[in-house]
Amino acid sequence: MANVRTQKVTDSFIAIDKPIRLDETSRTRRIFVPSFSVDAAGKKHLRGKFLRQKKGRSGWEDEEGISLKCVAPGEAVRFELPSEAMGRFLEGIGALLMVAQMPSIEERSQRFSIALSNKVIEISDEALRPAIQELIAKGHSREFLDQLALLKPQEAEMFADEQVLRRRRLSLDEFEGGLADEDWDEPRWGKFFEMNRWIFGLGLRYQFLHQLQGQAHYGGSDVRGKGEQKGDYLHYTEGKAKFIVLVEIKRPDSPIFQAESGGRQYRNGVPGFHPEFANAISQVQVNTRTWEVEGSQSEANRDRLQPGNISTVHPRSLLIYGNTSQLDSREKRVAFELFRGQLKHTEIVTYDELHYRAQFIVGELSGDIG
User: Residue 232's closest CA among 204, 198, 193?
Assistant: First the structure.
């Protein structure tokens, strides 16, 4: 459903109250700001501009930058819309083109609601309208599903699955936005994965992972309480017997290889790994060792883990780090894959690999519902 409010500014210009949101993160968004121009014959023509905005104290603000009109010939320019953003753009444009055909559009403060017929339920009984509006406004989703399940169990199950799919598609859009913006820090990524544990769910060994604790304390403090080691997440595998897995999160732009000095590699055919990459691996391995010999042995942790049959036995660790787009040569691809394949208890997954995994999960769910 598209709710459109128009306002006549001049005889030849009609403004629209809100933009078409193409994609959005917690800090930035890209939008299309539409308007109508009116020619001498009274015909309306849709026009508009694309903007990138950032969230300020008073709301969304246009980012400063160079207009495409000012770009000189020959200068590289690219404006790309992912499939979801393109879908929103086309849906919004379609609704506005329908508005343009309405004769009352010139009047001030007119509000129109436009939607495809297959996405609208017509309420012929006016007495039912207030009840349905109240149900939607108060969000009685649980009660609604319970009543629907009593009447039509199969339809209730399908409806619930569709709601899960809808939420995961929105999360996938947010994931793509975070990768595109490149301005999310590690806590922001950690919060995103905390809210979308289903993305983490399936480990590389095809064991389902469940989160036990975020910002876990692994141990390592001295008698003064200093030097304690913390990590991002403590997970465990799912099964009759469960086993601890430690998860550490870095950024998607974290470097894997060092910049080649003077165009030369560390050795012929051997690119040098970046110290940040080596330190991240060392960090998660040391944390894993600390948890094994200290954290898992404390009475408080044993009391919490034993009832769930969760054990710590040479615990594995999972490092979310970087992006395979950095592997821009055969030497780098070979070095990276050989290196992570030889790690004994630490698995490395890049952000783009995790993104494709999320796409696969959503695609599989879409196939089940369809």
Answer: 193
Distance between CA atoms of 133 and 141, rounded to whole angstroms? 13
Q: Where are the domains of the chain?
A: 2-119, 182-369
DSSP for 64-106, written as a single string: P---GGGPPTTS-------HHHHHHHHHHHHHHHHHHT-GGGG
For the segment 193-205, what is each residue's pLDDT rounded down to a tens digit?
Answer: 878 877 876 554 5
Strand 28-38 versus strand 44-56 pairing type: antiparallel
Tokens of 153: 């169990």
Say whether pTM exceeds 0.70.
no
Pick the closest to residue 161 from 367, 365, 359, 360 (CA basis): 365
Distance CA 246, CA 211 (A): 10
CA pair distance 312, 290, nearest whole angstrom? 12
Q: Which residues contact 68 (CB under 8 A, 6 or more apart)?
A: 77, 79
